[in-house]
Amino acid sequence: STLQRHSVLRDILPYPTWPPSVIQQNIPENTVPLESGSNVISSDEKHVGDVERLFVEPDSKKITHFLISQGVLFKDHKMVPVNWVRSVEENKVHLTVSADVLKDLPPYQP
User: Fold this and answer.
1) Beta-bridge mates of residue 23
2) What is the chain's pLDDT, residue by residue, as a tens digit (110 residues)?
């Protein structure tokens, strides 16, 4: 059984829309969705960034990667494969890799 959840496109579009657009998501019951703004925690318990954007496979509509932003003034962006996720809690994503592994990823270039 799935829980029908609606969310406003404010996390996807860089500008406000009017009237507000709504998309429908199927999220299994008793699970927490991976969301923009969540803290990303490495396997060695370090806060390594925040989820900034999700990348979805067009056919399956499943998340394949997510972009994390690191830093306050001068942000670095890293693309993280979703199979590195150990667990997702409210506002936290725990990874199976260490902070050093993330540090060695190349910067994301759009």
Assistant:
1) 7
2) 333 333 443 444 444 444 544 444 444 454 456 777 889 999 999 999 999 988 888 888 888 888 999 876 667 899 999 999 998 888 899 999 999 999 888 988 87
